[in-house]
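Readers outside the structure-tokenisation community will struggle with the description of the input data as it stands. Showing the layout once, in full, would remove most of the difficulty. For illustration, here is how one protein appears when written out as sequence plus structure tokens:
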Amino acid sequence: MNHTGALVSARGLTKIYEGPPEHVAVGGIDFDVRRGEAFGFLGPNGAGKSTTMRMIGCVSPRSGGELTILGHDAARDRRTIKARLGSVPQDDTLDTELTVEENILIYGRYFGLRRDVIRERTDRLLEFARLTDKRASRVQDLSGGMRRRLTIARSLVNEPDLLLLDEPTTGLDPQARHLLWERLFRLKQDGVTLILTTHYMDEAEQLCDRLAVMDGGRIVAHGSPRELIERYVTREVLELRFPLDRHEQAAEKARGIGERIEVLPDRLLCYTSDGEAALEEAGRRGLDPLTALVRRSGLEDVFLTLTGRTLIE
């Protein structure tokens, strides 16, 4: 039972796929999503993000734990919950033979809406998605960015309280991604609660009020992007690049510079409160990098600290 007043609440949420061998996709996680916020699951492929989203979307039953959505139990009240959800899956499920307008009209009928209501909402949604001039175009003729915007517009036809977005911008070019971010930010301003999965750092920082970082089916950290950065990494990072034949030797020499050294295949990351002082220390140790960069810490550094590998696998 949800005692938190949250829109979505999970306690010990578990998903196990029977074997052999048995696979624990989600291993007993706790989280709450508050009304009106954008909440993100951040993690690599296989971390359990999409499985968690399928359970929230009531399309995959949980194996254990509690999951309350919009005040209802996810197992007992699936139909009631799904009527108030919007869902943007990782892969588009648009009908490519139909027009942009027809895709929204037909989807609206699944919710039992009257035709006049659907048509009025379709006009607003096409304007929202910047697709009004494409309403008579077949989906097969749209760009990838246009298809994603149409999928989001279609998911809003029932005016959902909660919108689920699984990897919403994967495969899009930078311009299309930023336009999609702008549309999602506007939705949040209008009071729609968003839950999204992503493996893009900049996307998580741009869109999410709070994040749950997942790895191996578990939540390894949670908080706002700024809280995560302050909690898990230093204020600055010194990046040093060396010729490949000197990389390992340089890594040994750099030990002890700053609070922690992360050795990546192409560079060294020195986590420190003062990047310039760390660079001076590197020089005193006889290190002569090809390039040196002092920058502020970000979410990618948090992820490397927590999981020891990059996000995109």
